């Protein structure tokens, strides 16, 4: 499943490099940046006394085992959102923006155009119109 980082500040996640117990675990931290596309796989590793680390791919290049609770916390706090939800939100906002123009509803138009300007970068990142190195 694909997600996109919506947090303007980066998200810090713990990565597993080696080990199956807390005593021999070698880990580090990784920053997920605004606009990064995260593909979460169904492959994981369990570290005793710590928990699950899930295999992810970042922008189709970097591959890491990331602590599941870090991902879960980012999803629940809306710092990380599914790409489908971002596309749907953008499409609905565009539809209602067009409708507000037809109905000449200035307040709705202004609020939706602000929302669209914020979400357009994420939408275009998902649809591959902006490469990863052109992030703001």
TrEMBL record:
<dbReference type="InterPro" id="IPR014957">
    <property type="entry name" value="IDEAL_dom"/>
</dbReference>
<feature type="domain" description="IDEAL">
    <location>
        <begin position="87"/>
        <end position="116"/>
    </location>
</feature>
<protein>
    <recommendedName>
        <fullName>IDEAL domain-containing protein</fullName>
    </recommendedName>
</protein>
């Amino acid at each position: 499943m694909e997600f996109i980082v919506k947090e303007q500040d980066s998200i810090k996640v713990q990565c597993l490099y080696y080990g199956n117990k807390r005593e021999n675990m070698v880990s580090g931290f990784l920053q997920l940046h605004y606009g990064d596309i995260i593909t979460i796989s169904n492959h994981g590793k369990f570290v005793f006394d710590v928990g699950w680390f899930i295999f992810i791919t970042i922008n189709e290049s970097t591959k890491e085992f990331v602590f599941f609770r870090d991902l879960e916390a980012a999803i629940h706090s809306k710092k990380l959102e599914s790409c489908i939800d971002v596309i749907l939100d953008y499409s609905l906002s565009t539809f209602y923006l067009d409708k507000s123009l037809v109905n000449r509803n200035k307040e709705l138009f202004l609020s939706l155009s602000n929302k669209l300007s914020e979400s357009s970068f994420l939408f275009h990142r998902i649809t591959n119109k902006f490469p990863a190195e052109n992030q703001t």
